[in-house]
Write a structure and sequence with these properties.
The complex is a heterodimer of chains A (about 110) and B (about 120). By secondary structure, chain A is mainly beta. Chain A is built from no helices and 11 strands. The radius of gyration of chain A is 13 Å and the shape is globular. Chain B has strands spanning about 5, 10, 20-25, 35-40, 45-50, 60, 70-75, 80-85, 90-100, 105-110, 115-120. Chain B is globular, with a radius of gyration of 13 Å. The N and C termini of chain B lie far apart (about 40 Å).
Chain lengths: ~110, ~120
Amino acid sequence: EIVLTQSPATLSLSPGERATLSCRASQSVYNYLAWYQQKPGQAPRLLIYDTSNRATGIPARFSGSGSGTDFTLTISSLEPEDFAVYYCQQRYTWPITFGQGTRLELK
Amino acid sequence: EVQLVESGGNLVQPGESLRLSCAASGFTFSSYAMSWVRQAPGKGLEWVSDISGSGESTHYADSVKGRFTISRDNSKNTLYLQMSSLRAEDTAVYYCAKTRSPTMYNFDSWGQGTLVTVSS
């Protein structure tokens, strides 16, 4: 099983600041890494797929990068609605796995 | 517009069985693989199972293998999860999720979730 480790566990920032979230895989997942956003009481929402492709309707302030085992989700300038929990997910092999999440909280 | 509506969640005792359903609309159901993903209270996301568009191929997490069975009825646009020998650790919100493309297992649409509670 591929283990995805996200860091930091919690990130405290203010609106307008840049957020950088990390996801490290226990073995290469090539570029088959996605990012999701989840707000309290809501289902997750796909943000980025295959490392750097924004899903439909996702604002340009969200971007993804990386390859192999190290990946980054960047939010260029935080909006109030961006404070949420973010998960990475690999689809390279079964079992499909998610990271444990990074909580982005308002400073 | 894609819609996924789960149902069937309930409070059950350990060892009992339960069947979840997910009614899909707004897309060609038979063309897409579908998954179940769960989230225990206050915890992260855990992939449970998936099934190909035709229903011929399935995969399971080790934590549910041999106890849960995923299936689909493409004539009814409905996904199912038959859960047996339920344990306390199966307590979670269960989401059904649609894959982004027929062969790419990222999930671009999710239902609202249905709560399964396993407790005596």
